[in-house]
Amino acid sequence: MAEELSYVLVTPHSIRKSRTGGIIARLISRTGLELVAARMFAPSKGLVESYASTLVTDPEPRHRATQELIRTYVLNQFMPGGSQPQPRVMMLVFKGEDAVAKIRNTVGHIVNERTSGETIRDTYGDYVADASGKVTYFEPAVLAPPDAESAEHNIKLWAAHSDAEGGVLDKAVEFPAGTKVEKTLVLIKPDNFRFPNARPGGVIDLFSRTGLSIIAFKVHRMSVAQAEEFYGPVLEVLMDKLKERSAQQAQVLLEKEFNLSFNDDTIRRLGELLGPINGRENWEQIVKFMAGLRPSDCPPEKRNAPGSEKCIAICYQGVDAVRKIREVLGPTDPSKAPPGSIRREFGQTIMVNAAHASDSAENAQREMGIINISENNLKPLVEGWYAR
């Protein structure tokens, strides 16, 4: 069976209620599909109306009535203007065999007599009707296409609007006048994507404890050049930090091998010699972990090409954002991270530690610039896929 694209739109309500992580965990782990693109949208009236016009297609009365509810919901909840803040909608695009059906089955039907929690809508959606059958409350949690034709049409529709209406939505969340608002960057690291599992969503779910708002979301493959620049400040730190450890290790090995005894000055010089070598080696391994190639093994023509390793880049916004995110993340070494922190729950080693978070607002700006957090990689993916 040939691969196909499908999509999920996370509704403004689900985003406001910080359900994004749980939804992503379900989608990846239960479908086995690959998350290939994602983008935050502040949709315009034109996009909302165009999308809503595609939603009622089923001739069967019961299903058509549900689709009409969804259309009304989209026109009310996705539309800009009014007394509410600008709605934020997240588009997730998945690739794989039978992607449309797998997504549809994982999302579930909103009108379901069971409340088992089996599907996304069982858990996060609501359909409340009174004794006469009139719907009094309706929240679909996510929206997904019913068939491959709808999937293609709507992915193309949202992609066509993705330059003007997607990206970093730093004006979509309102704060009281005078509030000191920060933006910070999180990278969900490649160790979470070795196979389809709930870890990426689980990490995002723990970050939701901060109460911060997601204003940008991107599937990113870091190039070697980007990884070198991103982790450039770490190189000198490692070269200096590993002097003492390198000297101690060399001392033990050399004294045992040659039955020698080294004085303090010799041990210091061993550290001066080996620390930079050991530091660079560790740094090259970090770059390889994030981009798929060591800098010393990367041909010049491939330095700026997207790497083989996938991560998710997220921009969070809010009061004291840097501190709040780093508190939930925990220290670099997972063995020293407190219970309940992301690195304690999901980390393995100092390098394979689940996620990165900026250590200052200034570094957040630097790092978001390096990975180009506002880049629209949804549109070229969609155009390339359907031009095949």
How does this model look, in words?
Among the domains are: 1-168 and 375-388, Alpha-Beta Plaits (2-Layer Sandwich); 227-302, no CATH class. The protein is 46% helix and 16% strand. The chain contains 16 helices and 10 strands. Strand 4 and strand 5 form a beta hairpin. The strands form 3 sheets. It has a 4-stranded antiparallel sheet with strand order 2-3-1-6, sandwiched between helices. A 4-stranded antiparallel sheet has the order 8-9-7-10, with helices on both faces. Strands 4-5 form a two-stranded antiparallel ribbon. Helix 7 (148-160) packs across helix 16. It is α+β, with helices and mostly antiparallel strands and 388 residues long.
CATH superfamily of the domain at 1-168 and 375-388: Nucleoside diphosphate kinase-like domain
Query: Which CATH C-level class of the domain at 1-168 and 375-388 is it?
Result: Alpha Beta
Unreliable stretches covering 5 or more consecutive residues: none
Largest sheet, described in full? 4 strands, antiparallel
Which structural class matches the secondary elements?
A: alpha+beta
Succession of helices and strands: EHHEHHEHHEEEHHEHEHHHEHHEHH
Helix count, DSSP H or I runs of 4 or more residues: 16
Say how many strands there are: 10
What is the CATH third-level topology name of the domain at 1-168 and 375-388? Alpha-Beta Plaits
Spatial extent as radius of gyration: 24 Å
Q: Kindly, what is the distance between the CA atoms of the first and last residues, rounded to a whole number of angstroms? A: 16 Å
